[in-house]
Write a structure and sequence with these properties.
alpha+beta; paralog of FGE (formylglycine-generating enzyme); 3 domains; seven-stranded mixed beta sheet; five-stranded antiparallel beta sheet; 12 helices; 20 strands
Length: about 500
């Protein structure tokens, strides 16, 4: 019998003895590519016929010869099976030593037992063996791993599984491992058995479903689907050279703030290198400034620790922090004299949230307010309320305390501010651009008022429209709000977006 490997299309010939040896098994490893090949259904073997007349009963020599032939066939079968197994092991070892790891099959149990990355995740308490076993398959891809859940889950459950397994829902995006098209092609080849229906993925930080090779929008987050997960072992690495910063290798400054590049087109910083802090400025960061400079900082009447975003800060406080940090980092030799920390411009902030290319950089912030339908989680602006786990928004936890909420259909652990980085990052690697706290921007809302732009909404807002990506709120620069903080950018060419 001949069958074709579903992964490499190699024709494999299986004789009856080999089929007999594989009885009871569901799959075997392709000796060419190592992929799992389904054992074909049993084939009916014709009943044995009586020996032709004239031959008589077999002699002892004939019996011995037939017995020897039978033993030889059995040994051949065992040899074939052994070669299949050895071939699979060889492919795996080759992949670990720089071979083509994309064709290597590894089930979850083997990954847990044999792979140091997953055993370290378990040892660090990030996940457990039981949680990882809720993933049907995990296979290497690029510098990380990709897997598919065993069960169909709602979007909220999918995010919960990702958190429990130390993973993220897969982002269908260009990366060092290949383009979006290459990734979807690989998924269709590697996880063909799981692609009979749509699966949860992300694209540009928005909830999407993968339908074979098409990434599609969704209208409901409650439909159960299998989920594609990804693990990135290099996610904790940083660089001390800002010119080398990437999404996967952020620049880390002396305060431990991390910065990643966001491409900007149009406006004063057109195509210039601008690095965004991945977090809103933390209590720990601003405390270092306040302690060293003796600056006044009235603390908010809410519970916070050092990892929460610093709030009750005026626009002037944010500017002073950036100037202090620039001087401090230049003296330490971490940045050059041509580099500076500052607040983002309104135009730059729009690129960070994902709508910069849809707006006219020549217009004032007030002229671009309320013009686009996009939510940070849905560029079509149709999904409401925000997906649970997307950001720090006022949900059922607030309703129960008599605090206003955007919806009682979502819930998180924080009535007020949440630690930075609690929720998933966007496609640039930036956290909390939506929710948690409003963020000061550099310029005024318009030429007539002194008020400065704030973006991103906050933990305590209950107006649906205020969560759209294009919304510009504003404060007088002297206002101190427990729901307003700021995010720093590092400009590698000291360009101030607009006159202050």
């Amino acid at each position: 019998m001949k069958i074709a490997c579903p992964h490499c299309s190699q024709n494999l010939e299986l004789d009856p003895e080999t089929l007999s040896a594989l009885e009871g098994a569901s799959h075997f490893d392709c000796p060419t590519c190592g992929g799992a090949v389904e054992v074909p259904a049993p084939v009916l073997v014709p009943a044995k016929q009586a020996p032709p007349k004239g031959r008589g009963n077999p002699t002892p020599e004939r019996v011995a010869r037939r017995t020897q032939q039978g033993m030889s066939r059995n040994l051949l079968v065992l040899a074939v099976v052994a070669l299949l197994a050895i071939g699979g092991v060889a492919l795996f070892l080759a992949s670990k030593n720089g071979g083509n790891i994309l064709n290597t099959f590894q089930n979850v149990t083997n990954q847990i037992i044999n792979n140091s990355y997953f055993t370290q995740l378990i040892a660090d308490g990030v996940t457990t063996k039981e949680d990882l076993e809720s993933v049907a398959e995990i296979r290497p891809y690029g510098d990380g791993f990709i897997g598919v859940s065993k069960a169909a889950l709602t979007w909220e459950q999918a995010q919960d599984l990702a958190k429990k397994t130390g993973a993220e829902v897969l982002g269908i995006e260009d990366s060092a491992a290949g383009t979006r098209q290459q990734l979807t092609e690989w998924l269709n080849t590697t996880f063909a058995a799981h692609l009979d229906s749509t699966l949860w993925v992300r694209q540009d930080a928005q909830t999407r479903v993968l339908d074979r090779r098409d990434v599609m929008s969704v209208t409901t987050l409650d439909s159960p689907r299998n989920t594609i997960l990804q693990w990135n072992p290099n996610s904790g690495l940083t660089t001390t050279d800002p010119s080398e910063a990437t999404k996967d290798l952020p620049f880390a400054n002396g305060l431990g703030m991390k910065f990643v590049p966001v491409p900007i087109t149009g406006g004063p910083t057109n195509e210039q290198p601008v690095l965004f802090s991945i977090w809103e400025t933390r209590v720990a960061d601003f405390s270092a400034f306040a302690t060293e400079t003796g600056s006044l900082w009235p603390k908010p009447n809410i519970s916070q620790d050092s990892t929460h975003p610093a709030v009750k800060l005026t626009w002037h406080d944010a500017i002073a922090f950036c100037e202090w940090l620039t001087t401090k980092e230049r003296k330490a030799g971490r940045i050059t004299l041509g580099d500076s920390y500052r607040l983002p411009s309104d135009h730059e902030w729009s690129f960070a949230i994902g709508i910069g290319g849809k707006e006219d950089p020549s217009k004032l912030p007030s002229e671009k307010d309320r013009k686009l339908p996009d939510f940070p989680w849905d560029s079509d602006g149709k999904i409401w309320p925000p997906p649970s786990g997307f950001g720090n928004y006022a949900g059922a936890e607030c309703v129960e305390r008599g605090v206003r909420a955007v919806s009682d259909q979502i819930r998180d652990a924080y009535v007020y501010t949440a630690p930075v980085g609690t929720y998933p990052p966007n496609n640039f690697g930036l956290f909390d651009l939506s929710g948690n706290v409003w963020e000061w921007c550099e310029e005024r809302t318009n030429a007539e008022l002194p008020n400065r732009v704030i973006r991103g909404a906050c933990y305590g807002w209950d107006d649906q429209f205020m969560f759209r990506s294009c919304i510009r709120n504003n404060h007088h620069p002297d206002v101190r709000s427990p729901a307003t903080g700021f995010r720093v950018v590092l400009s590698l060419k000291s360009t101030i977006p607009e006159s202050r």
